[in-house]
Amino acid sequence: MSRPIVAIIGRPNVGKSTLVNRLTQTQDAIVHDQPGMTRDRTYRSAYWQDREFTVVDTGGLVFDDDTEFLPLIREQALMALAEATAAILVVDGQTGPTGGDEAIASWLRQQKVPILLAVNKCESPTQGLTQAAQFWELGLGNPFPISSIHGSGTGELLDALIENLPASTDNEDSEELRVAIVGRPNVGKSSLLNTFLGQERAIVSPISGTTRDAIDTIVEHNGNTYRLVDTAGIRRKKHVEYGAEFFGINRAFKAIRRADVVLFVIDAVEGVTDQDQKLAGRISDDGRACVIVVNKWDAVEKDSYTILEYEKVMRSRLYFLDWADMIFVSAMTGQRVEKIFKLVDKAAEENRRRVSTSVINEVIEEAVRWHSPPTSRQGRQGKIYYGTQVTSSPPTIVLFVNDPKRFGDNYRRYMESQFRQQLGFAGTPIRLLWRGKAMREVERNSANRATKV
């Protein structure tokens, strides 16, 4: 990344993610009273005065405990500090200095990056200086009393921070392609992200629900820039309790909505489940371009016909995404992972593509010639006057007809298949909007009134 990186370090539950939200002016980082909400390192963009930088939120550091995910969280925090231009140690002003703070401070004093000390939870202006003064003993210089919730003191902290940051050299001309990696728990989303990057960017564990936040990572490939977003595994709603998993799934749904392309990861061993079908329907309803990634292909016993049989079965179950490309990969061995980028580029291009009105009407004319619109029992036949594409992402085509009610589901599906056969649109959903004569009259009258004015 060309922007300088600022790592946020500290014990669990001192308010690191709340500070990240304050510095980045977002609510993207999950904040909850439960300690250990953040596990992976997550990147967010921020700026202060004339400086732009990237804030890295990390999990709570505990040096004397190797239970559950704590060693992996330490590894992620160490990697964040290794690439950082500066770091902010966050401590709890209401609790005062603890043994954990002293252990982290002792470790930070051995690092080569500048360290700023932020004493959080100093909501009272009169007591804030007294609370902060306790932390001089950590030997990290001036402690800044702040309140991440209310924002007090963060201006002074940022003024001191940017003195340690070089000017930004971001290339604003390079457009990012946003790619969300989604799927059920334990299908290999984080492993796929790590394989893309060639490093342990996200914590990988056989324990379901390891990833909680949406993890943004910038990747350069063949001259293109991708923002890969690893998301929490999405389970059935009835199995999700309010807390870490609830917040993580909401972030995953948000990542789908803001993505240009969704990598929908399926477990090749387990096959397509009911939950996979629901996710497929959501991706289609949100109008996102999609590539179906069948992971763990190395674990499947196969012959020369296996891949064809698998794809046939999976497509029959994922009929919501019958327009999406499918690729069989192994995140563990790296098999075919490199080819995913090509499919992502193709899906994004089709999702953004526009087709002229004349070409659309040629398709309509030929489709009607081969299969006339249905006729009612009273002898009234449906008529398509013309069509035009009104928007992209996803491609949306309005068809002006005499009466939308005369066009049943079968004929509507036929028209969509004709547009796909003639125009492509592989990798993206398309929307067909059917508007009747009454709607045309309203639009014509509105245009006439606007012209008179």
Task: State the CATH architecture of the largest domain.
Answer: 3-Layer(aba) Sandwich
- The chain-level structural class is alpha/beta
CATH topology term of the largest domain = Rossmann fold
Low-pLDDT segments, ≥5 res: 29-40, 201-214, 239-248
Q: What is the CATH homologous superfamily assignment of the largest domain?
A: P-loop containing nucleotide triphosphate hydrolases
For the residues shown, what is the average pLDDT?
81
Count helical runs. 13
As a percent range, the share of strand residues is 15-25%
- CATH level-1 class of the largest domain: Alpha Beta
User: Can you count the beta strands?
Assistant: 15
Q: Can you tell me the overall shape?
A: elongated
Query: Can you list the strand order of the major beta sheet?
Result: 2-3-1-4-5-6
How many discrete domains?
Answer: 3
Cα(first) to Cα(last) distance is 52 Å
Order of helices and strands: EHEEHEHEHEHEHEEHEHEHEHHEEHEH
